[in-house]
Structures are given as C-alpha cells and as structure tokens.
Amino acid sequence: MLTVEGLRSRYGRIEVLHGIDLDVASGEIVTVVGANGAGKTTLLKCLSGIQPVSAGSIVFRGETLTTVPAHARVRRGLAQSPEGRQIFTNLTVEENLRLGAYLFADDKVERDMQDAFAMFPILKEKRNLAAGGLSGGQQQMLAIARALMARPSCLLLDEPSMGLAPILVAQIFDVVKSLKALDVTVLLVEQNAFGALSVADRGYVMETGRITMSGPAADLIADERIRAAYLGI
Amino acid sequence: MPELLQFLLSGITVGAVYALVALGFTIIYNASDVVNFAQGEFVMLGGMITFFAHAAGLPLPLAALIAIIVTAAIGVALNKLAIEPARGAPVVSLIIITIGASIFIRGATQLVFDKQLHRFPAFSGDQPILIGGATILPQSLWVIAGALAVFICLWLFFTRTLIGRAVLATANNRVAAQLVGINTNYVMTLSFAMSAAIGALAGVLVTPITLTGYDVGLALALKGFAAAMLGGMGNPKGALVGGLLLGVLEAMTAGYVSSQYKDAAAFVVILAVLFAMPQGLFGRKSTDRV
C-alpha cells in the first residue's frame, strides 16, 4: 500500500533522514520505534507532505506522492494525526472534527462524528468547548479522531502516547488495535517501543536517520538488543 | 435635540464607512494573522476605477461591478506576488510588505489615472431626507445598508460555512489545516480576493459623499484599523460596532467640542478601552494551554 525508497530529508544543510526504505501492506499495523531525535517525526512529516523530501520516493496505492502537496495527499486517503498539540485551539471540539472531514459534505460525516464520540466519550462531553482548553491527553484523542474523520485508508500516527498518563496510554493503544477492524492501515511512530510493538504486526527500528532493524513485531520484542536499548528490560 | 440627532446621523454614516474598512481587515486577519495595511488602497481603487469606467461611458452599476472585480484581482495579485513568496516569514514582516504594497498601489494609481479628486453621482439622488428635524443623504443610507449587508454575509460565512471555518483553521494552525486537506494557498487567495472586494465596495458606496483620489486610502486604513482594534480584530461584530462607535465619537466631538479635536477624542477613547480590554470589545480570548 505504502512504499518508501531511499527517502532523504534535510533541515537547512543538516540531513536528518539518510535514505529510509520502508513498506506497509494493506491492513497492517506497522510501527517505527526509536529514541527521541531519531527522525521518526520527520519521516511522518515527509509522508504527509509537510516536510520537503530531498531524494527518494513515496509511492501510495500505486501513485508517486513525492511532489504532491500535503492537502492533496489527504484526498488520496493518507491522513496524519500529528504529534502534540496540532489541533485548532480556537475552534470547538466539534468544529475540529467537522474540519477533519473537510473534504466531505455528505450524511456520513455525522455518522463518523458519532463514531468518534463513541470511541472517545470525553470528546462528546466537551464537544462545544474550545479545543485549546482540553488537557494534553484529550487533545491527543481529538487529533486522532480528527484524522479518522478524513476517512483514511492509511493513518499516520505520530507519538499518540506521548505525555499521557499510563491509563490513557493503554486506552490509546487499544484504539490503534481496534482500527484494524475498521480496515484502516496504520503506520505508528512511537518512543514507547513496548506499547507500539505489542499492537503492531511488524516493526522498524530507527536510529539517527537510518533504519537499523526490521521484522515481525513479536521477533523485535524478543530481540535482546532491542530489549536492552528500548524496552528497559 | 435635532442637533444631537444630526450629529448622530452623520456619525453613523462616517462610522459605517469605517466599519466597511474594518470588515475588510477581518478576513485576511482571520486567515493569516496579518493586518493588511493596503486595505485602504482597495477602498481607493474601488472609487477610482468606478469613476474612470463611468467616465468612459459605462453605466454606473456596471462600472462599480468592474471596479470590484478588478480590485479583487489586484488583491489576489498582492497575495500571489508579495505575500505567498514570503511564506514562513514572521507576521510583522508580512505586515510591512502590505505597507510597501500600499505605497506601490498609491504610486501606480497616480500614474495610471491622475492626482485629481473625483466623484460620481449618488445612487438615489442628492435630495436630503428629513428625519425628526435632522437630515441624511440617501447615499448615507446606501453606505449604512452596505456595511450591514457585508457584516451579515461575513458573520454567516465564518459561523455557518465549512470554508469559513477552514479560513479560521488556517490562521490558527496552518500545518494542521493542510493535514485535514485544506488547501491553505487557496484559502489565502480567497481571503485576499474577498477583502479586496469588500474594500472596493466601500469605495463605490462612499465616493459620492467623500470624493475619491489616489491618496484617500491611507486615512481610511488608519481609521478602519482603529475601528477594528476597538471592536476586537478578527471579529465581524467587533468591526461593525467599532466602526460605528468611532464614527459617532468623532461626530459628537466635532459637534460639541471642536472639529479640530475629533481625531484626538476618538483615539483617547480607543486607548482607554484597549487599556481596560486589550482584546477589544468583542476580541477572542485566547484559551491555549501551555
């Protein structure tokens, strides 16, 4: 579904991705784990189109996306839930969700919104409040729900568990797992390697702009080096 | 009493002009946080182009329509040629670009047209209407109706339409806007076109009362900016109330104190209001958590 080959990207003169190869098959949950600063977020930004690519290619459902602008990638079914607080703080929760379905104006938008409220009941409670007043965890839920409103065939999730209380982390990973039933393919970027690998089918390990290991998630969890470096076991 | 009513009526007329200019600021500000200081030039262009098209023999409504369309196109050009290439620059730099654009448009107008003051006929004649001992020009009613109509349209645009919310979303978080599929370049282009068209409409409506010339834009932009700040930048309701309030304040000061003090009195009141309410009367409170 999504194939990345030799992807390079730079901030000014500093190259941060040194040739990434990665592929995601339809229906899979694939995770990219790695330490802070490894370039995981940059990789996702390249995929969603908000970070320029200096070399390599991104092919999504048979179409080369490398030069397609970000807003047009959403139309093709590739949506990103960005890291941290990338929500519309001065709009209400409901308006944020409605804008998530910006490309659609049919009856399904309302049903999708009810689905989002069912997935995150707290958002329903706060639907008429300004999103800027939500807690960090609630903003994270809103970012995920908003990305789902775009009816993606592939969802890019950037650090969904970051800064959340442990109970919420578990809830977020449950949601990720449940996306499989909704036929949404997921590329999940996480520092929380154990949580991410537990819900994923396959995983990639990223270090300083390179993929250093890859394989089935179960194998990676069992790997001694990964246990030592990322799982703290 | 007729005296007070007279001051009130002329204040509302002038205030409606300020409100129209302030409403023009609203859209670009909402889309980009940029205060477009070329807004006054849009008003000037609306009047000037209408005058010259009318003088060339076109009927007035057609001349006005052409002026609004041409001005909207100039607004789009301003965005494409000056603002978009500087994307990523701080807002202050973008505001300075609009000041430069305003000087450029003023100079170009001087060359393309001339330096004279111009006027075209009022839409419904010049016979003043008597109201309770005071009088008002029919054209003033056009200006007031124009300001109200633009206010209602903008209010509906921002609160009832998806594209209106997309404009707000673009200003709030451009990256997130792109991630939900909003073409932010298109939103910017649309905002400049709408702002310029509203400015031109203001120029068309007020020229029969105030005359137009290549250099009328600056003063209008300053008063419109003051009105927008008073009401709360970015809020159509604030622009309308701020504009009317500023106009009435000026008229009252000119009538009861001295016309020399009218600008001073208005600005003193604005300073006092902003001192107590820095967001303006209807400004949005920022509720970001950090």
UniProtKB/TrEMBL annotation, chain A:
Q: Which SMART domains match?
A: AAA (SM00382)
Q: Which residues form the ABC transporter domain?
A: 2-233
- In terms of superkingdom, the source organism counts as Bacteria
Q: Which InterPro entries match?
A: AAA+_ATPase (IPR003593), ABC_transporter-like_ATP-bd (IPR003439), ABC_transporter-like_CS (IPR017871), BCAA_Transport_ATP-bd_LivF (IPR052156), P-loop_NTPase (IPR027417)
Q: Does the keyword Oxidoreductase apply?
A: no
Q: Which UniProt keywords apply?
A: Amino-acid transport, ATP-binding, Nucleotide-binding, Transport
Matching Pfam families: ABC_tran
Molecular function (Gene Ontology), one example: ATP binding
Question: Which PANTHER family does its entry note?
Answer: HIGH-AFFINITY BRANCHED-CHAIN AMINO ACID TRANSPORT ATP-BINDING PROTEIN LIVF
Q: What protein family does this chain belong to?
A: Belongs to the ABC transporter superfamily.
> What protein name does the entry list?
ABC transporter ATP-binding protein
Q: Which organism is it from?
A: Shinella curvata
Automatic annotation (TrEMBL), chain B:
Where in or outside the cell is it found?
Cell membrane
- Write out the entry's keywords from A to Z: Amino-acid transport, Cell membrane, Membrane, Transmembrane, Transmembrane helix, Transport
Membrane association type: Multi-pass membrane protein
- TM annotation in the entry: 7-31, 51-78, 90-109, 129-158, 179-205, 211-231, 238-258, 264-282
A Pfam family (short name) is: BPD_transp_2
Tell me its family. Answer: Belongs to the binding-protein-dependent transport system permease family. LivHM subfamily.
Which protein is depicted? Branched-chain amino acid ABC transporter permease
Organism per entry: Shinella curvata
